[in-house]
């Protein structure tokens, strides 16, 4: 759309414009340059854009809550006064049409907020990412925290949860659960400690393999419109296809949307990645436009940069079978993976900074055994300090 199309736009027009909303929700260098030029060249339009963005800002940062009536009244007065000032010389019919559009816009904001403006279901911004980790003493066992705050300890290095209607099988032991509380606020949590793995098979057939030092938050029941989980750590998913209910995985940095596919997400730190094994996924990084991945592609992301490249997916999902496979991998990256899995500090000598290695480590072994195997591969020596950290030299 040419910039002249926007010169006479009011805040109301902008809030009903798909390109403006898309630019605010998924800004790109091209769209940012487009709007920046308009603002610089047209002061009246720049003022309208500021008002429109203020509206969106209030809604987007309202934690999913509806705007209060006083806020609606204040916003409406601002829009009305600006609209009257710009339209006072236009026909009554056009003025009425603008007022109706403004009222409709405010109603949308009040009822659905930012979610309705972006034509997204309200569940998109549900509080799943805000569910707090329960206060509990650190433990070496897998924990399942139910929505009623009941905590279950699960034995074994590779535990399995299977959900069925009204019950969950934990390592083949059946436990009755109350699914009648399946609201937006009712969530379960699976917390997997260092050196352990687990898996969840949901009632829809979707399977989630959960790596060590990982927390997964999921609703007691998936809604009729969507399936959504939140992850801190690393998971591998085999999503059961359901065109009517997309599956969304949220992390602190990413939203990954799928219908049916197999992929891995590593979200231990701010440097996160998604590796696609089969099917297709859409990754929303919040700071970049949505990216679609093809099989054997990895999207690596932090707030400074985003990269997509082809990888050997076997090296990224070997952990689900209890192994760490690496091929021409830097020693520092291997040490980082082991540190994440065993939750122990591992540092390396500067001389090993540019050294790469290939091999296969058994994650069922102790960290000391794994590091000794790694040292033979490099070669190098392993030193354990008094505070329990490991130094590869």
> What's the mean pLDDT score?
81
Count of folded domains: 3
Percentage of helical residues?
25-40%
Discrete helix count:
9
Residue runs with pLDDT of under 50 for 5 or more positions: 61-67, 93-97, 110-126
Please identify the top-level CATH class of the largest domain.
Mainly Beta
How many runs of DSSP E, i.e. beta strands? 23
Show the helix and strand layout.
Elements: H1 11-15, H2 18-25, H3 29-41, H4 43-60, H5 69-87, H6 92-117, E1 142-145, E2 151-154, E3 158-164, E4 167-170, E5 173-176, E6 187-192, E7 197-201, E8 207-210, E9 214-219, E10 227-238, E11 247-250, E12 255-258, E13 262-267, E14 272-278, E15 281-284, E16 291-293, E17 297-301, E18 306-310, H7 313-317, E19 323-330, H8 331-342, E20 346-348, E21 356-362, H9 367-377, E22 382-384, E23 390-392
Parallel strand pairs: 3-7, 10-11, 20-23
Antiparallel strand pairs: 1-2, 1-6, 3-4, 4-5, 6-9, 7-8, 8-10, 9-10, 10-13, 11-12, 12-15, 13-14, 14-17, 15-16, 17-18, 19-21, 22-23
Helix pairs in contact: 3-4, 4-6, 5-6
């Amino acid at each position: 759309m040419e910039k002249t199309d926007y010169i006479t736009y009011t805040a109301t027009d902008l809030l009903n414009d798909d390109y403006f909303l898309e630019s605010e929700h998924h800004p790109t260098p091209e769209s940012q340059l487009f709007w920046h030029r308009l603002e610089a060249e047209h002061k009246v339009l720049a003022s309208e854009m500021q008002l429109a963005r203020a509206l969106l800002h209030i809604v987007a940062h309202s934690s999913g809550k509806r705007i209060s009536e006083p806020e609606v009244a204040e916003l409406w007065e601002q829009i009305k006064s600006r609209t009257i000032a710009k339209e006072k010389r236009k026909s009554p019919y056009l003025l009425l049409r603008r007022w109706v559009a403004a009222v409709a816009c405010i109603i949308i904001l009040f009822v659905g907020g930012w979610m309705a403006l972006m034509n997204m279901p309200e569940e998109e911004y549900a509080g799943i990412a805000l569910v707090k980790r329960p206060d509990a003493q650190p433990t070496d066992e897998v924990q399942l925290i139910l929505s009623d705050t009941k905590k279950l300890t699960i034995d074994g290095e590779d535990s399995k949860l299977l959900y069925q209607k009204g019950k969950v099988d934990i390592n083949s032991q059946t436990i009755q659960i109350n699914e009648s509380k399946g609201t937006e606020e009712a969530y379960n949590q699976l917390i997997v400690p260092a050196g352990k793995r687990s898996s969840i098979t949901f009632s829809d057939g979707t399977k989630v393999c959960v790596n060590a030092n990982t927390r997964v938050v999921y609703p007691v029941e998936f809604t009729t419109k969507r399936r959504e989980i939140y992850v801190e750590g690393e998971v591998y998913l085999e999503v059961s296809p359901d065109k009517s209910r997309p599956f969304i995985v949220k992390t602190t940095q990413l939203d990954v949307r799928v219908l049916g596919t197999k992929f891995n997400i590593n979200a231990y730190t701010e440097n996160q990645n998604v590796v696609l094994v089969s099917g297709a996924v859409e990754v929303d990084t919040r700071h970049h436009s949505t990216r679609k991945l093809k099989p054997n592609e990895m999207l690596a992301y932090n707030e400074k940069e985003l990269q997509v490249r082809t990888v050997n997916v076997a090296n990224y999902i070997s952990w689900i079978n209890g192994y760490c496979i690496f091929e021409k991998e830097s020693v520092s990256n291997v040490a980082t993976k082991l540190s994440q899995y065993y939750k122990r500090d591992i540092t390396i000598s500067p001389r090993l900074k540019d050294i790469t290695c290939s091999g296969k480590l058994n994650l069922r072994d102790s960290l000391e055994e794994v590091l000794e195997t790694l040292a033979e591969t490099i070669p190098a020596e392993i030193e354990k300090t008094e505070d329990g950290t490991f130094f590869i030299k």
